[in-house]
What we know:
There is one protein chain. The protein has a five-stranded parallel beta sheet. The longest helix has 28 residues, at 37-64. With 252 residues, the protein is an alpha/beta fold. It folds into two domains: 2-64, no CATH class; 72-239, P-loop containing nucleotide triphosphate hydrolases (Rossmann fold, 3-Layer(aba) Sandwich), CATH 3.40.50. The chain has twelve helices and five strands.
Amino acid sequence: MEKKQTIKQYCHQFRLGGIYNQIDQLVSAAEAAGIGYLEYTVNLLKTEAVHRDYNDTQKRLKTAQLPRSSDLNLFQCKNDSGLSKARLNQLRELNWLDQVYNILLTGPSGTGKSMLAAGLCADAVQKGYKAYFRDMEGLINMFKMKDFSASAKIEYKRLSKAHLIVIDDLMSFPIEKNHAVSFFNFFNSTYEKTAFIITTNKNPAEWATMLNDEVLATALLDRLLFQCEVINLTGKSFRLENRKTIFELTNK
């Protein structure tokens, strides 16, 4: 018991949280199986590695700021959705991310654009990529504050080093000229090294109106669509089809 406590003290000193939490089970398993020193050492290090990988993934998932609906195992590929199960599985392999391809998800509200984007972002995080889910309003606020707020400056630097950025509801509202320029400058500085997933219910012809600048909209689309897969999701709104009610379903 005294030696176990000594081991725990060293684990605490060297911040080996995985071994610290599992040392009793590891020692008992080693004694029961009569394993050698090398195998026992490997088990110790493996336990710590798994612990650190788990904590790192949880930290990155938190920083990604994913919405609740981000599990693509629950994504419904209907015949009229515009995305087959085979293509969804191909997207989940993330080869496009390694090739720095963009994905533009278009279609009416409720057809699954945000869930698909969030799910691909979650898959990327789970596989070790620096991936973040943001909406357009949040990005505009970051551009406004990055020269005055420490947190906004950190966010800007974080996104500048991302492997993947999801921008949800792009062009959902008109953008002031100076903020549009800031957004373009950010996109222009990152698009060759960062993949983007864009969700929008506006067609490209409407982007000039939202930005109030046709030249800027054209330049943005030119960069976005250079290496890009455009997926138009169709069909009925998932939210309307699965609308909940406060009343009981049975008649009384």
